[in-house]
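@channel anyone free to eyeball this complex?
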Amino acid sequence: MANSVIIKIKRQDTPNSAPYWDEFELPYKPGRNVISALMEIAANPITRDGRKSTPVTYDSNCLEEVCGSCAMIINGRARMACSALLDNLEKPVRLEPFSKFPIVRDLATDRSVIFENLKATKSWVPVDGSYDLGPGPRVSPEDQEQMYPLSRCISCCCCMEACPQFNEDTGFVGAATISQVRLFNAHPTGKALKRERLSALMGDGGIQECGYAQNCVEVCPKDIPLTTSIADVGGQVMSQALFDLFRK
Amino acid sequence: MAAAAPRIIVIGGGLAGLAAVIKIAEMGGNVDLFSIVPVKRSHSVCAQGGINAAKNLKGEGDSTWQHFDDTVYGGDFLANQPPVKAMCDAAPGIIDLLDRMGVPFNRTPEGLLDFRRFGGTLYNRTAFAGATTGQQLLYALDEQVRRYEAEGKVKKYEHWEFLSAVLDGKRVCRGICAMDLRSMEIRTFPADAIIIATGGIGAIFGKSTNSVVCTGSAQSALYQQGCYYANGEFIQVHPTSIPGEDKLRLMSESARGEGGRVWVPKKPGDNRNPKSIPENERWYFLEEWYPKYGNLVPRDVATRAIFKVVYEHNLGIDGKPMVYLDLTHIDRKILDKKLEGILEIYEKFVGDDPRETPMKIFPGMHYTMGGMWVDYKQATNIPGIFAAGEAEYQYHGANRLGANSLVSCIFGGFISGPNAVQYARGLQKSDGNGYFEAERKRQQEINGGLMQADGAENPFVIWKELGEEMTKNCTVIRYNKNIKECDGKLVELLERIRNVNLSDRNQWANTTVAFVRQLYNMLQLARVIAQGAGMRDESRGAHYKPDFPERDDKNWLKTTKATFAPDADEPKFEFEPVDISLIPPRPRKYDAAK
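replying in thread with the prediction:
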């Protein structure tokens, strides 16, 4: 096919079956992203060699890079499929599921661990209740400008996939969660739980597992200053540990 | 003896659903929360510009009554007024609560909340967190729900899709039937009451600004089970979206709120670089036609103006259906502080920097004002079924004002939760249990049928035709003849979907099965939209018929209510008067202050 795009997709029918590759060839259209290619394949799942295949299973929702669903490995890099424009990708395009999370099917993986981590670190502001209790604490524009970028984390888990320390051996929580701890510890009300959050980051799997590879900040689609967060929270954990030591 | 804590099922984990969950958990109820996607990935994240509340922090003399009046007027008097007033009165308290929950709203130098202007008002009434306000609000509620989840008060069923309500012999809702989107297992879940907070219906129009999960499937399933669906014909087409292959990406009204200007070159086919076109050769048509509101007229007005410029004056950029939305005259620093999220979307998906080059935009289907019919307690006509958020019809009349959706979602959630608990506390026992198994079997048989179907129709082709048909005939400009043909086409598509062939028959994480089920429900709901539009011979808010260009209060100041006639397999309509007890209707005009 003249003027076409070849897409190779690593597939797997069930969590425990063997992976395999399918190759599809689509007519070129300017400005299209990986998701629209997957949509076109779904409508006509015939492989390049003419074999009838099935629509590819993948997670997606907003298609504006703000819901965090469509994370996958595209040409070897962890990123969001919606904002991956085919025009900017080396061809043939290779799509693979995240390698460090359980596979659901094809490109869909189970990333629920991020939500468990947010639970374990009490990543919330402990408000008294949802009644009308008047305005919240005043926040200077400077503080808001510090917090807002951290609060844009979409829980896509790209930082975890890219991290060499994020694996079963270390049990590392990953950069995203640490950055959320920084966010909530900085909030005037949120810091009430600071101690509990920091304890959750001590010991095995905690912040000490970070090997400063800096891959996290490299792949983050939202440009969150993850390494700064790790350094900041690392300092907080250290002082907390010292404090705990002397209080014993 | 203390009664057992009420068990409420909430379906949908966007702002409305999560707001309901928080209230129920706070009242001691137990919640099962169902969502197709992890709730943190719900469509509410896409809301950009802000949330309205008349806190009057800019010395403009704003009041909740002004907010109420703007909302009713913007909605062309179709909304029942008491609940709209209640929402506007509650809005300042809702902002305070979100503020306490840690939403990083933009601030004034003194550390107070900052507010900006949005469409359909002359006041700075919109609180915002950059241009990702929906994301920030959703996260705040998500975090509070996670806290209740950690306490064992909320159990999440993520990657589950609602299929139907379980109704007993007296047609009282006793629970739901849902499908695990991974194992494809179909199961029933008992509950004392359920709350539907499943959002919008964009997929019915093929491409829209909505997320993939916004199919309206749950609302349609309940309509087919006997719930009223109200004002379905009122569809909001947002004036500024970025056309794309896979979807139409929203370009927030806040771009205009911060000073963005809409224009086209005065000369047809002028293909000069927009920056090199001198001021006097540009046509700022919104500012010319609506001097008082300028670029911040309500969305229906702006959308029709763009259509007029493109299709009647033939002044689309390069002869294509596009106009400029220009931010290049605004200081970069301000843009980054207040609009970064949306500028980034344009940059990433189009490749141009909107700080340097005017954006090319065009209207795109965005929101449904209509939805499940509910009373002032958010209860539908079937006992035990409540609805909140975009899935219901209550707050926006014939057109929604920008930044009112977030407040209506949270307010509706806050009303529905406690009322569901209240209802559950007074609930009598059901007359039997067999209804659960019967419903499960009915749903299981549908899946069984789909897995074996070996017809000739490709569901994705049917969906494409549905989207094109609805976008062409049931959005901005409506003609009765075309709507009638569109409904005929819908009947044909409903025939064809009975003859589908699934390209995937795996029993695990089969997205095609789920999609065909949604598609069937989309088609049924599309008929409600089309026929409702066909019947309403007037123009009001987003509903515009050139053959009936005026609002007709004498005949049409009423709510459309559709019910499903199973024997005829199509909607039946009835109409209900609108409660206009607080503000008498007056002509809606934006070329002058109201």
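from a first look: Chain B touches chain A through 72 residues (CB under 8 Å).
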